Amino acid sequence: MWIPTEHEKYGVVIASFRGTVPYGLSLEIGDTVQILEKCDGWYRGFALKNPNIKGIFPSSYVHLKNACVKNKGQFEMVIPTEDSVITEMTSTLRDWGTMWKQLYVRNEGDLFHRLWHIMNEILDLRRQVLVGHLTHDRMKDVKRHITARLDWGNEQLGLDLVPRKEYAMVDPEDISITELYRLMEHRHRKKDTPVQASCHHLFVQMKSLMCSNLGEELEVIFSLFDSKENRPISERFFLRLNRNGLPKAPDKPERHCSLFVDLGSSELRKDIYITVHIIRIGRMGAGEKKNACSVQYRRPFGCAVLSIADLLAGETKDDLILKVYMCNTESEWYQIHENIIKKLNARYNLTGSNAGLAVSLQLLHGDIEQIRREYSSVFSHGVSITRKLGFSNIIMPGEMRNDLYITIERGEFEKGGKSVARNVEVTMFIVDSSGLPLKDFISFGSGEPPASEYHSFVLYHNNSPRWSELLKLPIPVDKFRGAHIRFEFRHCSTKEKGEKKLFGFSFVPLMQEDGRTLPDGTHELIVHKCEENTNLQDTTRYLKLPFSKGIFLGNNNQAMKATKESFWITSFLCSTKLTQNGDMLDLLKWRTHPDKITGCLSKLKEIDGSEIVKFLQDTLDTLFGILDENSQKYGSKVFDSLVHIINLLQDSKFHHFKPVMDTYIESHFAGALAYRDLIKVLKWYVDRITEAERQEHIQEVLKAQEYIFKYIVQSRRLFSLATGGQNEDEFRCCIQELLMSVRFFLSQESKGSRALSQSQAVFLSSFPAVYSELLKLFDVREVANLVQDTLGSLPTIMHVDDSLQAIKLQCIGKTVESQLYTNPDSRYILLPVVLHHLHIHLQEQKDLIMCARILSNVFCLIKKNSSEKSVLEEIDVIVASLLDILLRTILEITSRPQPSSSAMRLQFQDVTGEFVACLLSLLRQMTDRHYQQLLDSFNTKEDLRDFLLQIFTVFRILIRPEMFPKDWTVMRLVANNVIITTVLYLSDALRKNFLNENFDYKIWDSYFYLAVIFINQLCLQLEMFTPSKKKKVLEKYGDMRVTMGCEIFSMWQNLGEHKLHFIPALIGPFLEVTLIPQPDLRNVMIPIFHDMMDWEQRRSGNFKQVEAKLIDKLDSLMSEGKGDETYRELFNSILLKKIERETWRESGVSLIATVTRLMERLLDYRDCMKMGEVDGKKIGCTVSLLNFYKTELNKEEMYIRYIHKLYDLHLKAQNFTEAAYTLLLYDELLEWSDRPLREFLTYPMQTEWQRKEHLHLTIIQNFDRGKCWENGIILCRKIAEQYESYYDYRNLSKMRMMEASLYDKIMDQQRLEPEFFRVGFYGKKFPFFLRNKEFVCRGHDYERLEAFQQRMLNEFPHAIAMQHANQPDETIFQAEAQYLQIYAVTPIPESQEVLQREGVPDNIKSFYKVNHIWKFRYDRPFHKGTKDKENEFKSLWVERTSLYLVQSLPGISRWFEVEKREVVEMSPLENAIEVLENKNQQLKTLISQCQTRQMQNINPLTMCLNGVIDAAVNGGVSRYQEAFFVKEYILSHPEDGEKIARLRELMLEQAQILEFGLAVHEKFVPQDMRPLHKKLVDQFFVMKSSLGIQEFSACIQASPVHFPNGSPRVCRNSAPASMSPDGTRVIPRRSPLSYPAVNRYSSSSLSSQASAEVSNITGQSESSDEVFNMQPSPSTSSLSSTHSASPNVTSSAPSSARASPLLSDKHKHSRENSCLSPRERPCSAIYPTPVEPSQRMLFNHIGDGALPRSDPNLSAPEKAVNPTPSSWSLDSGKEAKNMSDSGKLISPPVPPRPTQTASPARHTTAVSPSPAGRSPMKQGSVQSFTPSPVEYHSPGLTSNSPVLSGSYSSGISSLSRCSTSETSGFENQVNEQSAAAPGPGPEEPVRKESKTPPPYSVYERTLRRPVPLPHSLSIPVAAEPPALPPKPLAARPGHLENGTRRTEPGPRPRPLPRKVSQL
Length: 1959
Description:
By secondary structure, the protein is α+β, with helices and mostly antiparallel strands.
């Protein structure tokens, strides 16, 4: 039986439980669980991470922990009773754990590892806390470490700042908001601004001296030198180096490391230097011989300096090398460091180029104890401490020092009978009073133990030596009295023995007889002469002598004898026990000289402060002793002296002595009667304030009042103890009178008297410190009333001195912070006066920082939820007094401009934050009663309205993101909780007072606006929080957005007919609210839109306004990342349901559908824009949205915005052509007018003409960068027309030059032709704009199918590539997946005129082949019926699919959707015809190129000839003969007779071309290829015989018509001959070289097409190598198989062809050597042959497009040809199309073409319902150049059939290289027998009139006068090549006047100027 648990409530899972039992709860190790029930070793409960799922689990899997339960029962809450730091650690580490893994995923390795270390460290510290064996101090230390690390991690991971009090998290509900703000502020500041240390220390480590000429021991002396004051500021650090320049005691770090301590901030400046003096120990001269002298002297060696400024950057200076300068002139040694600092170092030599002193320096900051903790290793190893000279900046009580500093300055000595000056050495001893030398009290510096004697260094031959050596004598106080210092002077001989001879001495006593020590300063000592053997041990003999000049003992004239020689020293005493001051000594010994008391008290003020504090207790005892002695006589003087001492302790140098005085008062003070005199004198001074002229002394007294009161109170207590509380009333009366005097003086207005106001300020500054003293003697209420009366007496006039007002406020502040104010009784008394002064200051907006601080303190004391009566009354008072002014203040300070300086800005933010916290505190403490009283207090509705507007405005300010730092989520949530509570109170007032006839739009609008921005706050979007944080917020506050949303809905419903005021203004804000992903909020808010539609419908009969606003706002909001697919569905379903019963349902459904469709597109757009790089998906999505705005919504501004977004995307992706087309969309909206345009996007305010000009120039620039120069030229002309019309010749000239440069670029620069790919996007997972649609995409430069396919798969990483080219079925369309179907397609140019015209360079043609393409095609081979294994061509059909796009490529996108597709099938015979036509055309082109010397290499022609002849000889052609010329085929296909004849004609024509080609080949073939040529000739005759041809002359009559480039021509007007299909009749045929189209590659193989299909699907590369491997002949015949190896088609090329020898790889890969085109596509007239760079040339595009037919059964259109005498001329006609002229760009002229019906053998399948194709269908003869078979054409059969046009392709990948264009030849020729006009025939499909070209097309499909070419471009025949006999053709009439072209030769007319469309 399950029993509810009593104690087992909370536990931690210690082993994972899978939960496999019924009702089992799956748990992981470490989960925390709450237990509800128990039963037989099982618990029932839930994991805290997922409280919604409850289940059972074994009790043994859980470790129970102590916890307390709140709200016992169904909704009980369990809180673990462990240390709050442990709880925080646990939850924080859990949150970090998931984020830590994400760091690894995001590759943030550095933070990942640092956080890992911190987490381990926290776990270790947690373990220590849990064990519980730590001492109290250690526990505090550990918690401090833990919280510091938690804060660091939270900051690094961007988590919230945690408010803490004594290391524990605080609950915001348990403290006031002002206190919470301060805690947050404190932690924020701690994080942001490290406290500047006031104390600094310099660490010095000596490494070595690097110098070449060492060999003697050295002494190195470091010190700090102030170059500004020219004095040392520190003691010396002294160390010894050995002969190698290394420290002598390396094992003792304290001997070579030192810490220069107690440097103040003022000493860290650039004129403080580290000076290093180096003394050598050795012989007198550095170069002396070793045996010259054995005595060692200290001699100057060198000096180095370094500015401390180099260390201020804070970096450690390791291994710093200081330059060491040697002193040449020893007399200047004492100032060598000064000269180096002054840059006078030219007079010194460096010790060597590589020499230097190696030291390590580091500047440390903080007090010495902190340094000891942080750099413990330094101190543990040992370091010597080098102090500052004298006392540090702050003298600490108890500091014991007695250091005498002696500087050996200089001497003046006589020669002493010598010819040269002396070498003087000074020796110093300290001698005690008994005459014995003191041992070890002479310190050379830190780092060296003290010595008993000192020897100075010796200056060579110098009678006026200057040493300037500083020594410290740490002599104990007890040995000071009677001791003296003796200086002995010796001459150091440089002779053999090197002895030192004593010649004089000086001495100086340390203490004078009156007890004063040697005064500080320089002393000139007398040098007493003596002999070497003089005994100085007996001190009595010389102590009676005078020691200093000017100080003579008695009238002893002996002193005068030594006046010529002097010795100077400087002394400086640093002692806490001894004094040099006689006045101090006199004061302390006042009882011995009572007559001097007055003088001593007067002189006390002149005594140095350090002397007074040294003897503070003695001095105070003296003063109160004097007071007790005679208070009448000395009372005033003692009082003044006491004031002086008290104020002395205010000095920062001595303020640490305040505790000494406090201790004195508490423990040592014994003046029980002193209070009377003190009160009396103090009152006397206060009474004199208003009258006194000079206030300085009075101010000093007032400044000292705190300690005066301390003495008064302590004295009174001592008196009461002694007397049992006598005279209590008298004392109270005295105090009352004193405070009365104070109140009187405070109430006086200064009236221009600055001194009085200063005195008032001084009193107020120190008055609050008196409260605590008064509380020791008086009751709390008494003191409160005294203080209230005193503060209340202050004048309230604000125009008085500002500084006084500030001080007054500070006094109020200190009062609030005082102990007195914390008591509720006294607080209630003091609060009115505090609020009164605050109100005055806030009203004047003065001293806001202080006001904020006081207010914060006021609210900190009022605890939340205190229901005590006193607290409620206090709140009443505060609300009445301050609420209004507080709101005004916040409005005022937030509307001010923020200060520029960062410090001021911080202060500004602080004061704002504090006021906000005060307001929130006040509002949170207000109860229903307070709100009711507040609302009732307004007399009029106007006042209430103003108040509500004010508070709503303030709330809007509080919600601003910048109000608090971003990691202050705790503070924001508290603020929001207060705001929503207040708004709920105030909304009632709004409903009651401002509805119906009192309706006020402004206040309601303010309310709704506040509610909306409240809901939209970032800190309330719980979806962005971690699960644990979200759970905490929901538990504490719930979802405040839903609460506010319900309130909005409720208030909206109350509005009634007033709703119309807010339509459409509130649509945007409410829409923003509904986009928040909170289901409850959406369900509440979305119905409001229905309400808006309904009211708008009632008002205006439609809801256009609602629709317009919805659409406008949706775009901006969704682009910000708001909204999702769920919202779209919810919006749709809720509103559709709501409008079901409305009369306006239809229009409502339409609106909802439009908005929903827009959402779909916007969501797609947003998802695409999240991608990093610009890809097709982004661009396609933008195009879709742009078109939606244009076509469906007609939103011009949004349309233009998206034009520019698309333009930016194109620029980023470097799609310059597309960028230009995109900008043309905007350009077309503008006119050449002077209408002014506003500033928009990046455009300035300008006229329409200027903007259009700017756009034109930008578009031209982009067309130029995209190498689309032809389009640029058209725009250049357009803008040039404008310049010309305005006579702006300067710009016109520039534009013409630009146009010319574009023409140059067309001719000179190489352009790559892009590949085109068809992409199908199938499946529901694709974005809306792609879903189940197919597109054609323009590839990038050099991009092949495989690369394109990979790019698409990268863009859609979840997509599956389909491995076939068949149309997918419905299951694929509806699949919840993404399928991509990709294969290459061939572009079919719409305009053919330029491509077919002779003499047009390929540079020009290349543009027309791949631009303005609407139509694309691809071919798929298949076998129909039974496949003939012997000859596969009998059943090999081709399915040709044509795709028509919605817009031409290139355009505003790299891809456009397919609008229509058509499918036709080509019979095997048509296939064969097309292949032969292509091959013949290719041969003609190569021959022509060879003749005109355009080929530098004849290999392509050789390869082509070899391929055709070799394949034909070995059986290639015979396969066609077997398939189509046999009797069975002719009988079974009677309708193909004409086609069979055509095939026969092409075969014979190929033979003629080959014969001529061989003749040309023979002329140019190099010597080493002659054998191959001979072989070709031999094989050619074999081939002719296999075709049944003996000699052409037998059946063809010769004609003297020539090739245009010198080759023989065959005339068409030869007499016809007949030949039946089986060889009995000669078929009329064309001139063998009359077919247009140039082909790229050297072979066209029918056998590769099927394999191409496979490779297309799989995306494999189909390189030449692969193809050649399939088909060994590199140039197989045009008759070999077009369809190789698909899975069901075997290679059917003739066996001989497969066995033919391979040519060299160079020839195999001719297309790879080409750089003219990026595409491996078979060539046609559109795609000229790429050759090696050395072979690049211009090609002639030649021939007629259709064959003349003599068969009378052919229909007129099929026979429509127009023979011309020139077989190499371009027979061009003009297509008649009824297209509009207006505003279009003219494209090159298009020839007219008659319609021909399709052969019955072709079957058409129209996929799209569109009635006609996008572009007119044309026909040409095409041929493949690679062994790919996919493109063939039969111009004679399908001149203009739309279903037959297009290029062949065999699947996916072959489209990129195996398809050719159909348009390489003429599609339409007009027969001379045809009387038809040159317009289209009755069956020709014409583009729908409604299909206007896109506005961004730079083409114009308008009619233009045809410009025929000269009929003949013949060149006289060359002598070498033999002429071929003419073809037997029907007689050709000689008159062409009625034809469509001129036949007489003439110059080619200049084309008409083209017009730019009006964009």
